Hints:
Elements: H1 2-23, H2 38-49, E1 53-54, E2 71-72, E3 93-97, H3 101-112, E4 116-120, H4 126-131, E5 135-137, H5 140-145, E6 150-153, H6 160-165, E7 177-180, H7 186-195, E8 201-207, E9 222-229, H8 235-249, E10 253-256, H9 259-281, H10 293-306, H11 310-318, H12 323-354, H13 363-367, H14 388-391, H15 407-414
Parallel strand pairs: 3-4, 3-6, 4-5, 6-7, 7-8, 9-10
Antiparallel strand pairs: 1-2, 8-9
Bound molecules: NADP nicotinamide-adenine-dinucleotide phosphate.
The site of NADP nicotinamide-adenine-dinucleotide phosphate has 25 residues, from α3 and α11.
Amino acid sequence: MASAAAAGAAAAAASSLLTCHYKAQTQAILPHNSAPNSTSTAFTNSCIRSGKFKKVKLQSVPVKRTHILNQLCSSSDPCVGSDSTTIESPPLRIGIIGFGNFGQFISKAFKRQGHIVLATSRSDYSDYCQHHGIEFYSNIDALCEEQPDVIVVCSSILSTETVVRGIPMHKLRSDTIFADVLSVKQFPRNLFLEVLPPGFGLVCTHPMFGPESGKHGWAGLPFVHDKVRIAKDTVQEQRCAQFLSIFEQEGCTMVEMSCEEHDRHAAGSQFITHTIGRILSHLNLESTPINTKGYETLLQLTENTVSDSFDLYYGLFMYNVNATEQIENLDRAFETVKQKLFGRLHDILRKQIVERVPLQGTSSSASSSSSTKAPRDQKQTPYFLPSSQKMKDLSSFAMPPLPRENKEDVNLAASHPNETSLVPR
Ligand code: NAP
């Protein structure tokens, strides 16, 4: 009974596909935002797997909503468009490994553009997948048996090596494309080159946005990619172009860049941003009635940063060879700023203490306008520095030694232990 129904549905799907082929070569089969019909999807999948359909060359027409099966042939043939007419490709079958925060986020775009999404993860996301028209596989072997066209590695940076080494490569087609979305690039590229069979296509990518920054769309957001190993003039090349076009269709700014270059830029930009966000999060900043635009930006940055896992942040540090240098730069820069502030403060303070120059607006300056020296009985501990207790861990706050003739001032400071310490530490 069930198989008769399935056969009927498959026949209907086949007829609908062929009708589409003759009726409108450039017309969309799938409406924008609609999930593919599961029966026709299953049928299409089985045709693709059995090698009945040839995926053909992508032309300038958007891939989105134009999934038309135009030619019958073996999927292992080189992919060559036969003439100048627009020839469209069937939807890709994309397997996502690691279906957490980011895996779910990008799967929405894959679905939106009518591709078939399969997912597997350490945790069970079967309920989520059921609601979003995605096939969930509780183990990686089952997903690989489905032989997706593209495998997208979306696991945490820290777990990726274990995850990739656990993939049963022999179950995949020999021209499978592996893509990753890790926020570091040299590491997955080297891992892929080391672990994956030579026929597999490799494209390392980094969408420079996430569920927060990309929640209102991806238009104008950078998408970095490096086609590390894609066989020329083959179906693999066509599928790779089709995969990348998903991001292009979403409006991303496509940036082709080597993995080394990416890591250098990312350490100086993304890693610094995350680090500042993490530091700010320790200040427990709160909105005030008088927020400046700049402060609003900081609050937003803090929120965006902490919504990512600490594993992600640690991965940015641990797996990017340029990150340590950036942490050191940041440290030096903070030290420089503190020195500038407190260096100037020291100058004023020293003038006041040593040369007896009164501060403007203080009672001593008012009462001694004709003299630069404060009367001895008005001598006070400088009032504008925080207590020594608060400053004890901050090296820039260490005060320089006083000249010996100002012993009196030193004694004064010692008699006020909670005030500014004038003794270097
Ligand atoms: P993440 O914490 O970096 O990674 C979470 C994913 O890793 C989940 O799928 C999780 O599986 C899996 N995972 C963690 N530990 C694992 C382990 N020991 N074994 C197997 N799987 C493990 O958070 P994310 O934001 O989802 O990022 C995923 C990837 O996307 C990362 O490589 C990240 O660099 C990249 N990326 C993220 C963003 C972003 O804005 N979030 C942007 C661009 C790229 P379960 O959920 O099943 O536990």
